[in-house]
Amino acid sequence: METKWLEDFVSLAETRSFSRSAQLRHVTQPAFSRRIQALEAWAGIDLVDRSSYPTRLTPAGETFHAQALEILGSLASARNMMRSYQAAGLDMIEFAAPHTLAFTFFPHWLMDLRQRFGNIKSRLTGLNVHDAVLRLTEGGCDLLIAYHHPSQPLQLSTDRYEMLSLGSETLSAYAKPDADGQPLFRLPGHERVPCLSYASGAYMARLVELILKQAPVPAQLEPIYVTDMAEGLKSMALEGHGLAFLPASSVHKELELCRLVPAAPAGSFEVTMDVRIYRERPEFVRHPKPGVQALWDFLRRG
């Protein structure tokens, strides 16, 4: 099916005349008629009632007319969008980040950045860690913000990608407090503690495994709930379902309001991660953006 067939059909619906539409479409009437027939063959049903004069659409044709108008409108919008994409996209910085950083770190970091660097146009895509890395390597974003820990390095070639450190983040255990402000659940614990867990294979799940492996005292944890996202674990912890290992930036407000409290002694059952920003080295970038380079230079200067 060709787009011009739809345009022919819409013209015929408006003029109700094969000859007039053929003239408007700058084709001969036989050629115009063949196009309408080709469209009907594609649709598998008669769209035009040729027994009447002036020409009118069949019931199926009336339905198809509305669809044709919508399709042509969508195509026109898509074309206009693509034509303006390059010009509009040059000043739009595309970020990708894991969900946790997208919810917690990114909003505060961007506000601070705007105060120091100036206004920037940005688009953020929140993904799991694996897909966020893929977004960068497949050219779907300009910059990737992600956690880094030596035990769980991202699989990015230093020959092709470079990084800067934006700070650090601590992953620790938290729980809802009781009436006295003490955690309802605590580590290491003498009985099995209900634990709100990350899905197996998730980046955070592997870091929690590291925390438990390095703990001086074995923790007696009973996984009772599993999800991929830290925000989901935090919501469950706030309701008192169990303890959860959460990034400090995700519980800042909850700690201030005493809605959550640390569930382990200070300095234990925790791990510190870097927060890093990555980009493809300029010599490999197919469509460089001046704004991305300016931002990178600013961040490099610290």
UniProtKB/TrEMBL annotation:
<dbReference type="InterPro" id="IPR036388">
    <property type="entry name" value="WH-like_DNA-bd_sf"/>
</dbReference>
<dbReference type="Pfam" id="PF03466">
    <property type="entry name" value="LysR_substrate"/>
</dbReference>
<feature type="domain" description="HTH lysR-type">
    <location>
        <begin position="1"/>
        <end position="58"/>
    </location>
</feature>
<protein>
    <submittedName>
        <fullName>Transcriptional regulator, LysR family</fullName>
    </submittedName>
</protein>
<dbReference type="GO" id="GO:0000976">
    <property type="term" value="F:transcription cis-regulatory region binding"/>
</dbReference>
<keyword id="KW-0805">Transcription regulation</keyword>
<dbReference type="Pfam" id="PF00126">
    <property type="entry name" value="HTH_1"/>
</dbReference>
<dbReference type="InterPro" id="IPR036390">
    <property type="entry name" value="WH_DNA-bd_sf"/>
</dbReference>
<dbReference type="InterPro" id="IPR000847">
    <property type="entry name" value="LysR_HTH_N"/>
</dbReference>
<keyword id="KW-0804">Transcription</keyword>
<dbReference type="GO" id="GO:0003700">
    <property type="term" value="F:DNA-binding transcription factor activity"/>
</dbReference>
<comment type="similarity">
    <text>Belongs to the LysR transcriptional regulatory family.</text>
</comment>
<dbReference type="InterPro" id="IPR005119">
    <property type="entry name" value="LysR_subst-bd"/>
</dbReference>
<keyword id="KW-0238">DNA-binding</keyword>
